[in-house]
Amino acid sequence: MRRRDFLKNTAIAAPIMINGFPVTATPSTGNTFFDFLSENTYGCGRVLVIIQQNGGNDGLNTVIPLDKYSNLNNARNNIIIPEASVLPLNGNATTGLNPALAEIQNLYNNGKVCIVQAVSYPNPSFSHFRATDIWFSASNSNQDLDTGWLGRTLDTNYPDYPAVYPNTTMPDPLAIQIGATLPFSLQGPAVNMGYNVTNPTQLLNVINATTDPAPNNDYGRELTFLRQMKNQSNAYTARITGAYNAQVTKSTLYPASGNALADQLKIVARLIGGGLKTPVYIVNHPNTHDLHENQVVLGNTTTGTHANVLSILSKAINAFQDDIELMGKGHLVAGMTFSEFGRRIKSNASVGTDHGTSAPVMFFGAMLNGGMIGVSPNIPVNATVNDQVPMQHDFRQLYATVMQDWLCLTATQSDTVLGSNFTRLPVFNMVALPLDGVSLTGQYFNGESRLVCKAELNMRYDYFALEFSTNGISYTEVGRVVNQSLNEKENYSFLHQISSSKMYYRIASRDKQGKLDYSNVVLLRSADKKQLVRVYPNPIVNNRVNVQLFESTQSAVDITIYDLLGSKIYYNRFKASSNIISFYVPQSFSKDTHYILEVRYDETVTREQVIFK
Q: For FRET with 126, which of 420, 447, 490, 530 sits at 20 to 30 Å CA-CA?
């Protein structure tokens, strides 16, 4: 008997309970795509929170195309939101939000929400279960992947599981699910790997319980495995309850009652704030979005079932974002929503909408390029029941973006997971320049890291220490300069002889009061044997910038300019048709002022200090 066959349908992944919510803590999300993300990003230090909107959300009554409003009114005049009630968005005259999303509007206007328009995939399915499987597994619509991406990932990456897990390297579960989910999202590639106790205080009794020895036969070996799974799950449960009890809720914005999504996110915030290193959390909206009838109240379309669903989402995200920032974790946490599909353009006679294709996806967090990606969907003048929202973005573009720009995977790993290359979208703002005016740039050349620390407020600090890491988490000091300069601005150079596949550097600066401040983190790679880009002329004159690439790429090139306080001043995406990219920037750049110019393509991220004349 094979362990996989014995356990395939064995329900041992029952959750523990926190505040009445089931919390499934396992080395697997049960969703192999998210398993892969978790396994390969465990040491990244960032967290992704996924909100599943079950049932298929009506995107056209969520993110409303004001520039297509007349055509939309022709298609759904019995459910459309009155134009005067649509919430406006800063810098976006063509689009607004459902009035139930007031909190999301505020986050958007503060740069903490990024909306991606018209997300779907070719030849979409209108079956809830099939469409959900496609989103979870990241498959093509004509593929039927039984266990999702890399179906044997856990067995391959953790061949000794569960005997030696958790351990000092991996003390926490790779993913946590809170609330009920579809069976597929609970089923791992081999087993459901969890264990249920109704009260965390009973854990010690379970852990310390003695059992009779298992017989030496097929049944006994499977029983031994089940006991290992139980004991491992107990250890994870102890970590979860410890983290939860170590952090109090900071935000006062959580609704007092009636919002189960906010209650779930409150638990997630406490686990993150309490120090749990789990990189992926999945929560579920408690209400269905499958609104074939009575989606709104006739005569008052700003109210009704859909408005309630959106209000729950908006208030929950707003409270969570406030909470996580008050805990000092805002720069490490990003979230995204998804629903298995959207709804049709034309409403039905039952004051509802039927299964459709594309719908918007919302990202939320403090490290986003806030705003909107994509344009208002095309709405025919006289839409029929068969007209759909045209796809603008494949959902796998979002996955590629999350993997590469947030969860520290390489382009090669992303392409392997998705089975192809998908163009990333400018969702994340990954330059975290210091608010105190200490910035770090560097290059790797001939076995040596060459780094420059620029101190805009030099007189504030006693010393500047260069810290090094191979994983971006644990740093050691490899150089220090004691401040003996009386200049307000000063540059400090560091050399570090090292050869590693990845080399992370930061500056630790101690101020006159003994407080440590940290610079941005610079990632260098040993493959960088030469200068990767050149910006010329530098100083830049007449606001014309030339960027020369010293290696070829078929990918888009993202160029962003930041001031030394970390504010994004300019962004554009270019096609590298030649090795020189030339462009003009707005005249608003201050003269004789230093900026950071960042160039991103493929797996390469490099930054140069520039000045405008």
A: 420
- Assess whether pLDDT exceeds 90 at residue 106: yes
- Residue 519, domain extent: 431-529
What totals of helices (H) and strands (E) does the chain contain, helices first? 13, 28
Domain boundary among 418, 445, 480: 418
Residues 402, 34: contact at Cβ < 8 Å? no
Residue 347 sits in the same domain as residue 260: yes
The answer for residues whose C-beta is within 8 angstroms of residue 258's C-beta and 6 or more apart is none
Dist CA 186 CA 191 (whole Å): 9
Q: Are strands 461-469 and 393-394 parallel, antiparallel or unpaired?
A: unpaired
Structure tokens at 198: 């109704």
Strands (DSSP E) contained in 101-226 are 113-120, 175-178
**128-143: per-residue pLDDT in tens?**
878 877 767 667 777 6
Residue 288 CB coordination number (10 Å) = 13
Confidence of residue 222 (pLDDT cuts 50, 70, 90): low
Q: What's the total number of domains in the chain?
A: 3
pLDDT in tens, 432-443: 444 456 888 888
Same domain, 110 and 176: yes
- Of residues 78, 123, 57, 118, the one with CA closest to residue 379: 118
Mention every residue, 6+ apart, whose C-beta is less than 8 A from residue 322: 250, 251, 253
Query: Does 592 map to a domain?
Result: yes
Is 584 among the domain residues? Answer: yes
The predicted pLDDT at position 200 comes to: 28
- Do residue 536 and residue 521 come from a single domain? no
What gap in Å lies between CA 25 and CA 505, rounded to an integer? Answer: 33
Task: State which of 385, 418, 451 marks the end of a domain.
Answer: 418
Are residues 285 and 360 both part of a single domain? yes
DSSP per residue over 460-493, as a string? Answer: GEEEEEEEEESSSSS-EEEEEEE-----SSEEEE
- Cβ(596)–Cβ(439) under 8 Å? yes
